[in-house]
């Protein structure tokens, strides 16, 4: 098993959605897939809504028009998302109901249930908690050009910034949106070959293990997912990580993060305890309700009322 697919998933999933160098062509393609009403609904959500404000969507706009690295823009966006108030449950609920209403025909067409929309939107507390992880041991490389605007390094460097910088170093090129889109489409054989050569040991970082800790605190069954036979032995995700990294870090599943990790999510709505260093953060009264922590992450209640209740409290 190579590290290439894992890096792409962890470092570029958020931007690889732009599956074309030509952004206008991408939007035209999206219009062809979605109804006019759904397109208008989504455009409104990301440009002129309370959700767009708390997600600081405007910070990401320069990525669409620049050929430079996405890392400085991403770092600025993370600082704004993490150091300001999070999206409220009311905002998330409204966003979900807006999508369900404005894209009803499209959801039916693509066999997506309303409960699924609530579940996806309801991942926000976990996603923000992971995105706001910072490390005091960021990746540094001499072949990476220093950004014009220095990264935010208060109480550490954002893990996402560190991981993207490491990926950029392996590729030897700026992670611009056109570059990422070309790589995602397989349009540059050299890029694909470079990704495939990234060593599996690159997974052995405090950031990766901290993210896995938080995700498995909410979804304990994730670590038991089988990756198939590796070196002749059936191996789970956690076995692969701990074996590859020779117990450099451990996966706690209880929110106890590596000592080099700090948590910067202001007024966190993540509904579990998180221990970073000598500080344990407890869920606040605004933390979203979540599903029971079953052993299987695939187990889901498809009842719409239950879905709304488990993510957003009483309905």
UniProtKB/TrEMBL annotation:
PANTHER family, sorted: SPARK DOMAIN-CONTAINING PROTEIN
Record flagged with keyword Signal: yes
UniProt protein name: Uncharacterized protein
Span of the signal peptide: 1-18
Keywords: Signal
Top-level division of the source organism's lineage: Eukaryota
